[in-house]
């Protein structure tokens, strides 16, 4: 089986396990192929955790789920040195962040020190603890969930950390047809919980091979220019629309251009194409930009949503 066929099978299995959230499934695979981190936001009960756990189950990787709470400490993530009286030595005991996949559940419930510890792991792929710097696995991905409804007892993620997430995906409610299928799926799982279906188990080497294939997907020069123009427009929106310029207080960083480049290649590869199309970039733009744009107080006062701003930008910036 080719590496592309393996990922198609992975996509199919995930779609069967997570019904009604096809966008989330696709964005999970794009983030995996693009070697980035994913922030998923949505109301409770929308299969955010299930989607991430289902992906980890189908990969031959280590996986840890961390429930973020206000009393969490940095050492709870990174690990700590433990004193052994028998040998009179301190021995470092790695924390859950030393895994291939880390699920940070309700990430905005942890205080700033914990966010800082996770930021180093996400940005540098390393952990500094006990006076030493320790490298994380080559295949390392943080998948975080966030509940937008409850604000009490939460700590908004700092802009520097938000920028480290490759994609920020919003999930909504399933349709009535999908919700009926979800009921039947969960009921069937409870009845047949002793019968484990055969799951795909892709090793880290296959993930690295797929990432190499993604980088070979062709991105034409006009589309490279389109990506740059789109990101530049977030910083100079007034040149396209005076009102839009008042709505954006701070535009996206160059990480947005890098993310659109890599993610559009990953999406094209998943769809079996050898080149990127403009619609690949346009489909990914909201997930790449929504957490990188800071809207003005005027936009907040008028109830303007960040996705509306992004869609307006997409309508104004032409493909070269």
**Which structural class fits the helix and strand makeup?**
alpha/beta
Instruction: Tell me roughly what share of residues is in helical segments.
Output: 40-55%
Mean pLDDT figure: 89
Could you give me the name of the CATH homologous superfamily of the largest domain? P-loop containing nucleotide triphosphate hydrolases
Structure summary, number of beta strands? 11
Please state the CA-atom Rg, rounded to the nearest Å. 21 Å
Remind me, CATH topology of the largest domain? Rossmann fold
Distance between the termini: 38 Å
How much β-strand is present in the residues?
Answer: 15-25%
Strand order of the largest sheet: 2-5-8-1-9
How would you summarize this macromolecular structure in one to three sentences?
The protein has 320 residues and is α/β, with parallel strands linked by helices. The chain has helices spanning 3-17, 22-33, 48-57, 74-78, 112-124, 159-162, 176-191, 204-215, 221-235, 242-247, 254-270, 278-289, 297-301, 306-316; strands at residues 37-41, 63-67, 79-84, 89-94, 101-105, 126-129, 132-135, 141-146, 165-170, 248-250, 294-295. It has two domains: 23-170, Rossmann fold, CATH 3.40.50.300; 216-316, Magnesium chelatase subunit I, C-Terminal domain (Helicase, Ruva Protein, domain 3).
């Amino acid at each position: 089986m080719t590496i592309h066929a393996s990922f198609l099978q992975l996509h199919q299995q995930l779609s069967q396990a997570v019904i009604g959230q096809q966008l989330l499934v696709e964005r999970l695979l794009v983030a995996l192929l693009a070697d980035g981190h994913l922030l998923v936001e949505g109301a409770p009960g929308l299969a955010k955790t299930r989607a991430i756990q289902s992906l980890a189950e189908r990969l031959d990787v280590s996986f840890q789920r961390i429930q973020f709470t206000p009393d969490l400490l940095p050492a709870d993530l990174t690990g700590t040195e433990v004193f052994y009286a028998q040998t009179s030595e301190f021995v470092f005991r790695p924390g859950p962040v030393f895994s291939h996949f880390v699920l940070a559940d309700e990430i905005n419930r942890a205080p700033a020190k914990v966010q800082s510890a996770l930021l180093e792991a996400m940005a540098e792929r390393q952990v500094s603890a006990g006076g030493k710097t320790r490298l994380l696995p080559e295949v390392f991905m943080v998948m975080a969930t966030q509940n937008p409804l409850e604000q009490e007892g939460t700590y908004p993620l700092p802009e520097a950390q938000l920028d480290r997430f490759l994609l920020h995906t919003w999930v909504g409610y399933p349709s009535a047809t999908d919700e009926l299928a979800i009921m039947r799926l969960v009921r069937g799982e409870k009845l047949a919980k002793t019968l484990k279906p055969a799951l795909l188990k892709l090793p880290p080497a296959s993930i690295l091979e797929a990432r190499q294939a993604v980088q070979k997907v062709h991105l034409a020069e006009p589309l490279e220019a389109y990506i740059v123009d789109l990101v530049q427009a977030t910083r100079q929106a007034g040149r396209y629309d005076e009102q839009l310029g008042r709505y954006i207080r701070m535009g996206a960083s160059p990480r947005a251009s890098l993310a659109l480049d890599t993610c559009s290649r990953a999406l094209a590869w998943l769809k079996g194409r050898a080149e990127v199309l403009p619609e690949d970039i346009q489909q990914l733009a909201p997930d790449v930009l929504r957490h990188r744009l800071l809207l003005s107080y005027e936009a907040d006062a008028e109830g303007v949503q960040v996705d509306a701003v992004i869609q307006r930008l997409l309508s104004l910036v032409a493909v070269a």
